[in-house]
Amino acid sequence: MRICIVGGGNIGTLLVGEAAADGHDVTMYTSRPDSWHNHIVVKDIQGLIIAEGDIYTITDDMSLALKNQDYICVTLPSIAQKSFADKAAAYVKPGTRFVMIPGYGGTEFLMQSVLKQGAVLIGFERVQAIARLIRYGQSVCMRGRKNEIQLASYPQCPEDEIKTIANDMEVLFHLPVKIMPNYLNITFTPSNPVLHTSRLYSMFKDYQEGVYYPSHLPFYDGWTDFSSKVLFRLDDEVQLLCSTLNHLDLDGVNL
User: Fold this and answer.
1) Could you tell me the superkingdom of the organism this chain comes from (predicted)?
2) Which of 82, 118, 202, 249 has a CA between 20 and 30 Å from the CA of residue 35?
3) Strand ranges (E), 62-214
């Protein structure tokens, strides 16, 4: 497959390395092409190499990066997606497939510019693995892989088309793929949107102007019972919303 990866962070680098190792024609679209090596190495948590391969193209030229790709995998944070979509719209034709990893966070609104050109969003409920950069543009550590990934399309694709896409994603990610009944199962997934919010609220709810912290506050290592209580309350709110929309199948929205 011809794959373009947008975003060179943890997940983007992992996807580049594994896709290149499998022999896919991989293009890396990045604002920092000079910081990237053609050869990408993926290691496990013990430091052993588990995949490595060569990138076909590394470029900051969007017209080159997005041309004739089977899939354009977007690993950008939500804050950068609208800007990317606005620029990409000039190079999109009907049927262009953008794979959003992950697909929650309002991507169907942030990517409106390409959707108006006839593009299709393929959204994942969560990322396919936990990854951390070792050296930017060169290597990444894969710390744990999911047992399954869930996806949906927006607009909703015909059954035969979404099955073909799911099969391609199984090849790309080496994981079983479950097709969700609609994209709201992706949108409402209460993963990082409630996890991060819960922890940040518990960290800074008592903040007052003039307060300074002597050191960086640990995020996960400093997790508290109060953080968990806020998390469960936020999840309850999401589930209440889903139950209110009882004419839609939202059984896939799980914490």
Assistant:
1) Bacteria
2) 82
3) 71-74, 97-100, 120-124, 129-135, 139-145, 149-154, 177-179
Q: For residue 67, what pLDDT is reported?
A: 92
Closest Cα partner for 29 from 109, 129, 98? Answer: 98
For the cut 90, the answer to whether the pLDDT of residue 125 exceeds it is: no
Token look-up 């004739």 returns 68
Nearest CA to 196 among 91, 77, 40? Answer: 77
What is the 8-class DSSP label of residue 9?
A: S
Residue 189 has pLDDT above 90, yes or no: no
Q: The tokens of 236 are what?
A: 């309850």
How confident is residue 26, by pLDDT bands cut at 50, 70 and 90?
very high
Helices and strands in the chain: count of H runs, count of E runs: 9, 12
Angular region, 113: left φ>0, alpha ψ -120 to 50, beta rest: alpha
DSSP-based three-state secondary structure for 48: coil
Give the pLDDT confidence score for residue 42 in this predicted structure: 97
pLDDT band, very low/low/confident/very high, at 255 (cuts 50, 70, 90): low
Evaluate whether 93 touches 118 at the Cβ level (below 8 Å): yes
Instruction: For each of the domains in the chain, give its residue range(s) and CATH number, in order of start.
Output: 2-187 (3.40.50.720), 192-244 (no CATH)
Q: Closest by alpha carbon to 3, among 21, 22, 27?
A: 27
What 3-state class would DSSP assign to 199?
Answer: helix
Using CA atoms, how far apart are residues 17 and 20, in angstroms rounded to an integer? 5
What residues have CB less than 8 Å from 116, skipping those under 6 apart? 89
